[in-house]
Each structure stands twice: as structure tokens, then as C-alpha cells.
Write a structure and sequence with these properties.
- The chain is mostly beta strands.
- The protein contains 2 helices and 8 strands.
- A hairpin with a 2-residue loop joins β7 and β8.
Length: 118
């Protein structure tokens, strides 16, 4: 199930955090009193990325961020503004959630997997 499909902004690609879509927070239930959830997402090469979704404790809007190893992921995949990142989630029969992350780049009007080019 797709959790997030986002075209990267300049700050997403250069800062060590991604502005996480608030509409995708449903996939990361946060226990009462906490403002973040850590999870592991695997790429196509089965490399695991430790990520963390955080929200503000105060204010009118939750303003979620994706942090953790996001900066390392951006660096390894050589992501830049305009690339697309897709995060998916599957609930296994044993109750475990499996997250996958992938990146794509637009070339000649088509999206191509960055992961498959590495």
C-alpha cells in the first residue's frame, strides 16, 4: 500500500530531513505523549534505512518531518530537486509492518528507477 509519493523540493534534497506529507501520517500511529515514530524501510537492494517520522508538539499544524538516515539515503542515491520518492507499507500476517522506499528520476518524460541504475 502506498504511504507516500512525493516529488522532492530543494530543501528535501539538501537538508537532512524531508517535509513529510501530513496525509501520510495514518501509516505511523504515535503512542500518546510521543511526537515521533522510528521505522526501517528497505530499498530494492535490501539495504535498510533507519528513518523517523516526527511532528511538532505544539501549534495548529502537525508539520511532519522524515529524518533519521534520510540524509544518507539522499546522498547514496544522489537525489536532487524534482526526483520522486515512494514509500510503501505492507502489513504481514504476523502483524509486522514492512516498509519499502524507492527513488525515481524523470528522464525524457518518463520516470526511471534510480535504484536500478546503481
Amino acid at each position: 500500500m502506498e504511504v507516500m509519493n512525493k516529488i522532492l523540493s530543494g530543501s528535501d534534497a539538501t537538508n537532512r530531513r524531508l517535509e513529510f506529507p501530513a496525509g501520510s501520517l495514518w501509516a505511523f500511529p504515535m503512542p500518546d505523549g510521543q511526537n515521533s515514530v522510528e521505522f526501517v524501510a528497505s530499498d530494492i537492494h535490501e539495504q535498510q534505512w533507519r528513518l523517523k517520522v516526527s511532528v511538532r508538539n505544539e501549534g495548529k499544524y502537525s508539520k511532519p518531518w522524515l529524518k533519521g538516515e534520510w540524509g544518507d539515503y539522499v546522498h547514496q542515491k544522489q537525489l536532487r530537486k524534482g526526483d520522486r520518492v515512494i514509500l510503501t507499507m505492507n502489513d504481514e500476517e504476523n502483524g509486522e509492518r514492512i516498509y519499502r522506499i524507492s527513488a525515481e528520476r524523470m528522464l525524457f518524460g518518463f520516470w526511471y528507477s534510480i535504484d536500478e541504475q546503481q
